[in-house]
Amino acid sequence: MEKQHNHKDCMQALKPVRDTLDVINGKWKLQIIISLNAGNRRFTEIERSIPKLTSKVLAKELKELEQNSLVKRVVKDTYPVSIEYFPTEHTKTLGPVVESLKDWGENHRKHIFGSPTEAEKSE
Fold this sequence. Notes:
Blueprint: H1 7-24, H2 29-37, H3 43-49, H4 55-67, E1 71-76, E2 82-87, H5 89-92, H6 95-113, H7 118-121
Antiparallel strand pairs: 1-2
């Protein structure tokens, strides 16, 4: 018979998951991190790399990612001033998480829709 877990055990397991989701939750944060990891550094590069992402939302999400030590904002003393964004060393720890989410998403799509069509393969 499987052991029943009490409320305390459940909360100990859920709290770190909830903390993680609080940091990377939302439609855009992981997409921004993926864009940064792909080499996009300037605000407009990041914005253009993610369809339907607005400037206002990008600015908000970058600020939150910076507050959580996942993005470093670098102001360059040029004329005009330029700003670049970089993933931090801490961001690299999300690599396995992102890869697992990607794998799960691909498997889930196959589970729901069956084998991917040729059109989906080329997306």
